[in-house]
Write a structure and sequence with these properties.
homotetramer, about 300 residues, alpha/beta, Alpha-Beta Plaits, Rossmann fold, 4-stranded antiparallel sheet, 9 helices
């Protein structure tokens, strides 16, 4: 109960300014990187808004950088700009780099089974403008959540799992067709094959309902109950061939007591799961996550 | 990505066991209360599941108790049971008391304006079975959220505010008609009159988007931004005549940095608001909140 | 910078009221327990201050209760009171029970190696009156912390580990001599033998510098660093024969980022370790922890 | 209880690398700042380890930057380096800037009254190597904490407050004599005069035992108790002429329930106060805090 306030809340500039680009870089740490990159951007009239950097070890480690900048001032075409950067900066420093434009939000495919909480949270945040993404399709192995998906006007495909390979092949076909840039497993109750990951060839983000590496695999809430832990958690990570062992993007926990049962832990856990998954998706969508080995830098 | 788990998650017994009753008591602290109440319940075959008590001061303070028990064993009718309790226990100890039955969930009216996050979170938790309540109607001063309300099959009444008294009269008529036991202001952007509170005569729960008593009134996120705080919060409280000054039920905060704007604080705050309001509504629905003076005991 | 406030801060009544007793009970859940116990206390003029109960399953589970009450009104001697309780209540219900008196604080032995943070935090909280315990001795396998121990006027025994059995035998002799009721491993870098636990025969509380069951054993900070987790934790548990697998009393975590090294994780972890250990020790000292199987009820 | 681990824990490189310098800058935001600064550092062989920047508004706002770099490569003397930077970079961009050297830790004076928790926490963290500072003196208006101060070998001056001006004059004389770079009020129960602040002329950091701006002034725990809040907090801020209204550096809160009294809130609050104050002191000592208007940027 408060006096009226502006009702269509302006969004986080980071999410929506359509006139910005984000440059992410990684390379062997060496003197002069920041100078070279910032000089290049300055010379091309690209005004830096945010800049983050990290080095695993200033002497002989790996260097990571994320720079967000305005495009207005850009004197040249994006193509020219990118070619010039590759030639003048990236090659000399041996950088792997990526440039993305806020005006071209990433396309996210969602895979889900029967639990609604992570799916609905992502759809609502998207609708609210919290996530600068597009959601071209939702894939499920059940019909359960069709209505929810359609409420938000998102194409929903239920492919019941019979011969796994066929199912996965169909899922991948649909995701490629939809131009998905990455996929999110919003409590998807099937283990993806290595083939799936190879053939999709894009990042896949999962939410696991425990504080990894504790309670890998099925029924973590039951396992947490058996162990008598006083906190339960959730972990969002990139999917790799090894179950629940990929690079961690975000984690959080919540306190629990002896009063809880595996069922109430499941209920309590939902709130952490949707928060942690949303945080990971937002970071990925904004190019804040850089992977190295089995770890992440999250700017 | 986990092996399949039971998909219709059993709910918190506390929410759904339809065969339990909850007794809440407050009276002057004095010896023998617990003995008398537990003896009475035992004699009537009511097996205690949960029991909480608190005393503001064991010598001369106020005593509060909440007992949840099974009804199976009850040898007599509820009416007989209640009359007997009044006579044998409540009167001698000068108790004010209340008995509610899980099989008769409370009816909650929701008042909302244009923000969707608190409304949708409540509807969604209700649908999930997290809240043992009924939601007979949603009142708004705007049409904005009609479709969301109807998605969940809840009657939605938009009453545009012209002459306040008339609006409030109509709102109260509808709430009484629907048998509302309490009302929730899920980011409702009108200040309720004292008349409204008197005529409704039931508890009204509000969510305020700050850590009260800091930033009372309008635009707390702007005020938080101006003050440069490093945490923003949300407070759920019972509404009283004085703005944002009623008994606090639940509060929480989240860390923020110098990078935030009033707009991003608004976005970040949404997650805390919906969590805190849901916690308060759940506690109220389960008769866990006892008010004394301007404070609450939350069991 | 505030106006003066009372400088010898009154302490938590729970810690210091010397005229209270705490009764803890566990037995098979069955009707009438609360009634019988509270009736007994009332009949003997023992006025209940706090009461907590829990049942693992109201039908056929185990029932736990903790009741704190004043002794003033006690019409009889403690001995008579205890004998009467055993006969009238405990035996009929097949209870295991314990009665402790605030006026007889528990005696805590501390075992420590070279890290000072957990030791100093406990000594300091004891000095402040936060912990209603006595600390008759500190045992170490190093001389490092002698001065700190002596600053607080606590006998310090450094027993360098040569033939383990002899060391442990000496430690146990000293703890028994000092009448220790329980022992705390405040970052003690030796693994206790099963013999040690058997011969000491009292509870031993450990602090492990990870969120168990993640990162059992040595160097959890290194392991956490390798896995790239975004939270590090601490776990306080009762020591059992199996390493880091005993009943958990308290846990907490703190957020970390990609910027941390194993060394900075160690520094950050110290704050969580001392908080979690202090919470566990306080709960144990106040008879709030009841163990069943490999779990705890913490009232 | 864990296998042995290295006992003299290596410290946070940020605290102890004696071969680094930190440059902090603020100026009107304008294109080319990052390029100019990083180019300058690169040309002088100063290799950047950490870099953070913030702009209150990329178009027409204020720009803040903190860069930490190694000095090995420095081809010239510090004096030459600083003069060159002033001329080549700072003046053209109209920067206010500061350069500090890890090898010259800041000198911190502590003012304290009778509460020991904040004082001891700072002394211990200093001893542990968590804080790269020197503590040349402790000032108090009571004798109470002399022994604690002397335990850590720090000169302790108790100046009982009679004629305030004289006291403050004496305190300032001692702080100047000791070359204090800043002062910390570790629960100092006197309100400093504006004269004091003017004559000391250095930053003064205070810890207030509430979540400011809630509960300004004396007895915040009493006020929190009266209001029935469900969280209590602590706020560390720079002292200004207006009581408890200076720029906030760090804040945190902890949950409390209806069971607490003003006395137990005081006890619980101590843990938050010492954590928050330590965080603020560490940030200030590492030149991570930049003040603008009544706010801070904390890198």
């Amino acid at each position: 109960m408060t006096a009226p306030a502006p009702t269509n809340s302006p969004l986080n500039p980071r999410d929506t300014t359509n006139n910005t680009a984000t440059l992410t870089i990684s390379c062997a740490d060496q003197p002069g990187i920041v100078a070279a990159v910032s000089q290049f951007l300055h010379n091309h009239g690209a005004n830096i808004i945010h800049s983050d950097q990290h080095s695993t070890d200033p002497s002989g480690g790996t260097f990571f950088m994320r720079m967000e900048f305005y495009l207005e001032g850009l004197g040249v075409s994006r193509g020219t700009f990118e070619r010039a950067f590759a030639q003048v900066v990236a090659e000399p420093f041996g950088m792997s780099w990526q440039l993305s434009y806020a005006a071209r939000p990433k396309k996210m495919a969602i895979l889900v089974s029967k639990y609604d909480h992570c799916l609905l949270d992502l759809l609502w945040r998207k609708r609210r403008g919290e996530l600068n993404i597009e959601i071209p399709l939702i894939l499920s192995n059940h019909e359960t959540l069709r209505r929810d998906a359609e409420m938000f006007g998102i194409p929903f495909h239920a492919i019941t799992v019979n011969k796994e390979n066929k199912t996965e092949a169909e899922q991948i076909r649909l995701m490629h067709e939809a131009g998905a840039d990455f996929a999110v497993l919003a409590r998807y109750m099937q283990i993806l094959s290595t083939d799936f990951l190879d053939q999709f060839g894009k990042p896949v983000i999962n939410i696991h309902h425990s504080f990894l590496p504790a309670f890998v695999g099925a029924n973590p809430h039951r396992a947490a109950f058996e162990r008598g832990v006083k906190l339960i958690g959730a972990t969002s990570h990139y999917v790799t061939a090894e179950l629940d062992a990929g690079p961690i993007i975000a984690q959080d926990v919540i306190s629990v007591t002896h009063r809880e049962t595996p069922e109430t832990l499941m209920r309590i856990g939902r709130d952490v799961e949707r928060q942690v998954l949303a945080r990971a998706v937002k970071a990925h969508a904004e190019d804040r996550v850089l992977v190295y080995g089995n770890k992440t830098v999250v700017f």
